Every structure is written in structure tokens, then in C-alpha cells.
Task: inverse folding
């Protein structure tokens, strides 16, 4: 199945969303990403039991950190789907992109010294 | 006589004691204390003056006690462990005695979280049990808690509170025993609504000989309304309000609830008068001081004995 | 272990706002286990600070390092060569570590990034509960292994108070009454006699800074630095 999803999305594969740490998402934003989202398996269907639930909590944590720092928490999100739901994946990518477009570019990019 | 207080004299003469309660104002008006005192004068043997009750700042209990003395009433000076350390406590005990205060009630005090300064640091340097033994040591041995001699023993009739209803029930009477061994002369109980449980508590206290070692004053608070009864049942920790009380108040018209509440209190008082091991009643008519004359009259408590 | 909580970001920003080169120093022991000031938390704070200061048009040069322990001279020594490059230090260790760091580099401002909250057990990942206030005169032997100083809201030695409420403390229904639990445990062990005697007032040991020298050890003439 070939699916179109916005080309601005850069995919990083991890074995389980439980592997995604707060610092990974935060660093992405620090380095100038306009948004970060994690796509995990459906809740209750994690191969490692809790991985996607942990990830959701971390996403929430990152959102609160961004707020503290003065950035929009909406730049970071969590989505869930089951494997094989290609169209849903594409839909989420589109939704996230639109959402970020509304927010505009990461304000850090305008500041000096952002890689 | 340990203190020569009116309350002590009434009790040692074998009379059935009757004590009241007065909460100092949240401000500097001495008048507020005097106004409430009018209703209590001549109708009770001694008046408890609460100490930052429910952890709300109020006029100091020793100060309100002194105003009461000026008005010709006898205070029962309450002191909580929450707000002062052992130095301040002993200093206040000496000062209170020097100015004519003769009864004291030693309490732990409600936690600061309940009051208007919820983030205050609770002191609790010593607890109520240890405060009782401190006063006793000062009075009987003429020594400070540290063991150093003091000159001029404070003559204080030592009181404590007892809650017969808190869990575990079987421990309550032992806790009373502990307070008695620490040195209390009289005990005022938490407001009683569950009479069956109280009878059992007193029976245990009688069996252990405790009611011969200290005077027990049964706590009574008339219900002003059904709302108050429900609040006390659901919201006040350590309070035991049985369903009968609720249904009795429910059974009468709204404007008759206060009267029903007083009737319940009068029935209780009548029973306490006959109950072995109960030496008096402590009437806590919270913000209802003006009803005390009527309640005292109808309970057959007047005139108060002159001793 | 000692547990701590990360301070609010705004407070940390305020503390260091006048400094341009800041070293964030974590601790790999207690505060790392309780997820407040270990390597990961150091990285998060440094990233936050970097972003926050850029957004405030007041960029800061940051360094970060996590020591094995900040309450040990041996590990602090690692910093000796690098501190000169910074004009302030942020410590994510407990209050003890922060002070030892400040003591070692007395000419550098040292700022705490965590609030030290006590001695606690690990109930689950991220969930800690205080159990001891290090009073210096342990009474657990008389109280069925439940600390009245810490677990009773009033720190009573002769509890329970009149507010005990069907097993809960008067302060709220979710907080167990320590003295109710003490009673139940001693009863189950047949040791209620422990409670019959009036416990005398505590001789508080925490009113002055305490020093501990274990038997068999002596205080060196002058601590090596
Ligand atoms: S009594 Fe409590 S505070 Fe004191 S040492 Fe023991 S556990 Fe710690
Ligand atoms: S209710 Fe229990 S835990 Fe709470 S203050 Fe009273 S004795 Fe302590």
C-alpha cells in the first residue's frame, strides 16, 4: 500500500513508544523542530504492556515543560493506532501538520545559536 | 485543694458540675467576650475559653480568660500544643496562674490545615499527655519540665479532653487511664450523641476505677438544626452522630428543630445526672451562648451551688 | 533514600537570570533514583534553560555533568578543573549535596534546582512516601515499626488524638492515622503494653547541626580538601 503523507514529517523508528524519552522530544524542539508526535499502538495493546501508556505520560510531561519554558504545548502530541492502519497514520500526519501550521514555525529558530 | 478553683470546689463537694464554653473573638474587642459572658454568668461553674479553636487565629485564650475574671466568671483556660513550645507553655502557665486563672484544659489542638493559616508549622513540641504531666510537675513538685526548681507553684486544676467515640473504641478507656496517670484532675468529653456507646465507655471506666481518680464531665452540644446534625455526622472527625438523632430532627418541622435539639440535650443531661461515674456536664453551645440560660434552667441546673 | 522534587522552572530561571555561563550539576545517587536530579533530569533542565533563555533573548552557555554523589568530597573533586569556566552553578542534588558543592567552591554562586523533601520509600516508579524525619532518637521499637514523628500529622508520642477518624487522620480521609495503625499492629503482635506508659517529652536532637562519628573512627585534625 502506498500512502501519501506530508513530506515534512521525518519518521524516527523505535521498537516501542515506551522507548521515547522526555529528553528526545525536548531536544527535537530545542534543535528547531516545529512539532513532535509519537504514534504508538492502541492503548491496552502494547506488546510491552505499558510502553504506550508511559509514552503518553511523557508526552504530557513534555507539554508541561514547553509551557513552563514559554512554548506552545500543542507542538507535542501522542497518537495511537493499530498496526496495519496505514490510512489512519496518514490522517494523523496530516492533522499534526495542519495543527503545526496553525501554530507557525518554532520561535526558537529565529533566535541565535539554534542548530 | 489543688487549685481552689470554683470548679474544683463544686466537684469535691460532690455537686453535679455544669461548665460552659466561650470562643474568643477574631479581633481585639473585649466587648465581644463580655457580651457572651453575660449569658453564662451564674449559670455555669466555669467557662472553657478556647485556644485558637479549629486553628483559626482568635484573641489569646489567657487574655479572654482574664476578661472573664473581670466579669466575675471563672475561666477554664484551654491550651493547645499546636501553637507553642515547652518554654512558652510553661511561661503562660505561670502567667495565667499569677493573674488568677485556676483551671486549665490541656489539648493537642486541631491540625493547622483546618484553619486560616493552613501552611503554619505546627509546633507539637510536647503532646497533650506530656502537657498534663508538665502542669502537674510544676504544681505538685514545684519543678519545671527540665527538673529545675520554680519559685511559686502554679495552683491549677488540671483538665483534659477525652473522645470516647474515636476508633479504636477499645483503646479509648486506656487512653483516659493514661491521661489520669499523667495527672489530670478532670476530664471533659467530646460531644456525646451516641448514648449507648458512651454508657459502655463509662462502664469500662468505672470497672477500671478511673471515675474515682478523676472527675468526668459529659460533653453536650445541642443540635441547632438538621443541617448541623448532618454536618457533624459527616464532616467532623471523631464525631459519632447516630441515625436516631438525625431521624428525630427530621421528624419535626424546620422551625421546631432547634427545640427538638434542646430536648434531646435535656434528656441526655437528665440521664448523665443519674449515671454512675459522671460528675457533671460540659455544655458546648457553640455560638449559642444566649440559649444557655434557658437550657440551664430547663435542665434543673439552677441555681449553681455556692461553695 | 533522600527524595527531592524539581523546582518550578520559573523559580530556577529567576535564580540564574543574571548569569551567562552556568554549569548544571546532577547527582547519581538518591535524587537520581527518585527521578529528580540524575543525569536525565540534568539534561532536561539544561534543555529547558537553553530554550527559555533564548526565548527571553538572554542566551546562556550551559554545561552539564552528573557526579556519582555530591555529598562526597572524592566525587566533587572531579569538578575542580572545570568550575572556573562558569560563573554560577546549579545543583540538582539534595540539600546536603548542594551545600557541599557550595562549600567546595565558595566563590561561585550555587543555586538549588530541587526542593529536598525527606527520607522516603519507593512505593512504585515515580511514587515515594516519606517515612522518617531523622529525629535522632528512634522510637520505632515501641510503636510497632510505624514512625509517630513522621506519619502522625501532629508528631504525637502519645496518640491517637481525638481527631482520629475510622482509621484516617483528621487532616484528610486519604491519610491513614498513624496511631490507629500503631495500635492495630501492636495489638496483632500482642504488645499493647508498649502504649500504656506515658512517653516523656522528646529530647529533640535536631535543634543544632549534628555530626556523626562512628565508633572506631576519629575526626581528622582538619578535613582534607
Ligand atoms: S522515630 Fe521516626 S523520625 Fe525518629 S528516627 Fe525513628 S523513624 Fe526516624
Ligand atoms: S488523627 Fe492520628 S495521625 Fe492524625 S494527628 Fe491525630 S493521632 Fe496523628
Result:
Amino acid at each position: 500500500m502506498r500512502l501519501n503523507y506530508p513530506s515534512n514529517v521525518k519518521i524516527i523508528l523505535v521498537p516501542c513508544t515506551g522507548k521515547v524519552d522526555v529528553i528526545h522530544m525536548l531536544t527535537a524542539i530545542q534543535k528547531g523542530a516545529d512539532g513532535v508526535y509519537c504514534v504508538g499502538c492502541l492503548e491496552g495493546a502494547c506488546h510491552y504492556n505499558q510502553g504506550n501508556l508511559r509514552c503518553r505520560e511523557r508526552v504530557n510531561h513534555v507539554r508541561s515543560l514547553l509551557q513552563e519554558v514559554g512554548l506552545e504545548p500543542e507542538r507535542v502530541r501522542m497518537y495511537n493506532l493499530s498496526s496495519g492502519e496505514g490510512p489512519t497514520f496518514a490522517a494523523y500526519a496530516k492533522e499534526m501538520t495542519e495543527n503545526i501550521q496553525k501554530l507557525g514555525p518554532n520561535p526558537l529558530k529565529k533566535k541565535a545559536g539554534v542548530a | 485543694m489543688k487549685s481552689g478553683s470554683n470548679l474544683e470546689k463544686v466537684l469535691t463537694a460532690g455537686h453535679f458540675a455544669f461548665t460552659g464554653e466561650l470562643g474568643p473573638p477574631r479581633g481585639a474587642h473585649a466587648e465581644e467576650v463580655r457580651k457572651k459572658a453575660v449569658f453564662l454568668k451564674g449559670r455555669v461553674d466555669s467557662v472553657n475559653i478556647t485556644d485558637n479553636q479549629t486553628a483559626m487565629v482568635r484573641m489569646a485564650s489567657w487574655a479572654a480568660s482574664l476578661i472573664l475574671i473581670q466579669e466575675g466568671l471563672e475561666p477554664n483556660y484551654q491550651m493547645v500544643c499546636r501553637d507553642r513550645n515547652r518554654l512558652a507553655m510553661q511561661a503562660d502557665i505561670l502567667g495565667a496562674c499569677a493573674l488568677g486563672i485556676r483551671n486549665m484544659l490541656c489539648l493537642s489542638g486541631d491540625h493547622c490545615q483546618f484553619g486560616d493559616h493552613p501552611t503554619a508549622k505546627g509546633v507539637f513540641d510536647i503532646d497533650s499527655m506530656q502537657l498534663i504531666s508538665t502542669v502537674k510537675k510544676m504544681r505538685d513538685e514545684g519543678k519545671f519540665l527540665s527538673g529545675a526548681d520554680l519559685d511559686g507553684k502554679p495552683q491549677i486544676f488540671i483538665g483534659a479532653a477525652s473522645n470516647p467515640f474515636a476508633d479504636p473504641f477499645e483503646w479509648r478507656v486506656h487512653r483516659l487511664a493514661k491521661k489520669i496517670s499523667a495527672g489530670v484532675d478532670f476530664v471533659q468529653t467530646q460531644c456525646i450523641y451516641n448514648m449507648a456507646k458512651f454508657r459502655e465507655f463509662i462502664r469500662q471506666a468505672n470497672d477500671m476505677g478511673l471515675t474515682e481518680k478523676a472527675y468526668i464531665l459529659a460533653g453536650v452540644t445541642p443540635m441547632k438544626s438538621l443541617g448541623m446534625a448532618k454536618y457533624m455526622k459527616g464532616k467532623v472527625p471523631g464525631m459519632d452522630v447516630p441515625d436516631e438523632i438525625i431521624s428525630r430532627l427530621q421528624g419535626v418541622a424546620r422551625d421546631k428543630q432547634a427545640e427538638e435539639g434542646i430536648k434531646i440535650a435535656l434528656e441526655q443531661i437528665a440521664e448523665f445526672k443519674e449515671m454512675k461515674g459522671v460528675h457533671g456536664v460540659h455544655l458546648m453551645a457553640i455560638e449559642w451562648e444566649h440559649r444557655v440560660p434557658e437550657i440551664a434552667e430547663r435542665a434543673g441546673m439552677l441555681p449553681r451551688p455556692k461553695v | 533514600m533522600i527524595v527531592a522534587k524539581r523546582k518550578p522552572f520559573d523559580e530556577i530561571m529567576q535564580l540564574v537570570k543574571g548569569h551567562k555561563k552556568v554549569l548544571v550539576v546532577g547527582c547519581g545517587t538518591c535524587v537520581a533514583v527518585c527521578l529528580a536530579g540524575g543525569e536525565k533530569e540534568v539534561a532536561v533542565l539544561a534543555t529547558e534553560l537553553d530554550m527559555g533563555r533564548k526565548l527571553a533573548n538572554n542566551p546562556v552557555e550551559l554545561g552539564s555533568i552528573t557526579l556519582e554523589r555530591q555529598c562526597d568530597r572524592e566525587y566533587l573533586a572531579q569538578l575542580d578543573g572545570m568550575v572556573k569556566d562558569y560563573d554560577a552553578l546549579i545543583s540538582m542534588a539534595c540539600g546536603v549535596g548542594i551545600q557541599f558543592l557550595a562549600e567546595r567552591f565558595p566563590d561561585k554562586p550555587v543555586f538549588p534546582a530541587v526542593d529536598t523533601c525527606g527520607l522516603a520509600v519507593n512505593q512504585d516508579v515515580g511514587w515515594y512516601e516519606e517515612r522518617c524525619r531523622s529525629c535522632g532518637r528512634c522510637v520505632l521499637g515501641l510503636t510497632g515499626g510505624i514512625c509517630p514523628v513522621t506519619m502522625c500529622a501532629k508528631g504525637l508520642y502519645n496518640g491517637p488524638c481525638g481527631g482520629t477518624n475510622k482509621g484516617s487522620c483528621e487532616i484528610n480521609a486519604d491519610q491513614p492515622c498513624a496511631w490507629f495503625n500503631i495500635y492495630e499492629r501492636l495489638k496483632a503482635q500482642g504488645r499493647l503494653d508498649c502504649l500504656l506508659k506515658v512517653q516523656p517529652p522528646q529530647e529533640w536532637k535536631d535543634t543544632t547541626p549534628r555530626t556523626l562519628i562512628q565508633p572506631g573512627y576519629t575526626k581528622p585534625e582538619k578535613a582534607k580538601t
Q: What stands out?
A: Chain B is about 40% helix and 15% strand. The two ends of chain B are 13 Å apart (CA to CA). Residues 172 and 184 of chain B are 16 Å apart (CA to CA).
